[in-house]
Design a protein that fits this description.
Number of strands: 9
Distance between the termini: 35 Å
Oligomer: single chain
Shape: elongated
Strand order of the largest sheet: 5-8-9-7-6
Helix content: 25-40%
Radius of gyration: 18 Å
């Protein structure tokens, strides 16, 4: 609900003045908006056919949940501050990387299967739409990680900001 409130007001969580937000939700938003629309139509149709009030409450909550997921992706972007790179997955902060640990960042599109957060011995992948397109190398390792892969709506702008 907080993300919906922020989204309605055009705000972003944890992005201060001078910080650079790095969005990652553009490819998922159309699907989530269409899904919310289909659920809203389904809510109206069920409202005409079924007289039970609690079914309508559940339907409205389903619409709000889908819109809340979309809102959390938009209002909680990755954030590059003067001191850190904060990587997020929706409303959850996944990793905070000190800028001093960033060796470099480069564009490298990869396709992945499975979960949105994947971690092996030295690499973390934050997958959106089954792909990542930015790789950040770390030295010294942060939380045991030497590489982090993540998705960005505009990889070139993200690389320019991270490498600056």
């Amino acid at each position: 609900m907080r993300s919906l409130w922020l989204w309605a007001r055009g705000r972003r969580a944890g992005v201060g003045p001078g910080d650079v937000p790095i969005g990652y939700a553009n490819e998922q938003l159309p699907f989530l908006i269409v899904l919310a629309g289909v659920l809203a139509v389904e809510t109206a149709v069920v409202g005409l056919l079924v007289p039970w009030w609690w079914i309508h409450v559940v339907d409205v909550l389903a619409v709000l949940q889908v819109l809340g997921i979309a809102a959390s992706l938009v209002t909680h972007p990755h954030v590059l501050t003067p001191d850190t790179l904060v990587l997020r997955n929706g409303g959850r902060t996944v990793l905070v990387i000190p800028r001093s640990a960033i060796v470099d960042a480069r564009a490298e599109r990869r396709y992945h299967d499975g979960r949105t957060e994947q971690r092996d011995d030295e690499e973390l992948r934050l997958v959106v739409g089954n792909q990542t397109d930015v790789v950040v190398r770390l030295d010294p390792p942060v939380d045991g990680l030497r590489r982090v892969r993540f998705r960005a709506d505009d990889p070139r702008a993200a690389l320019t900001s991270v490498n600056a």
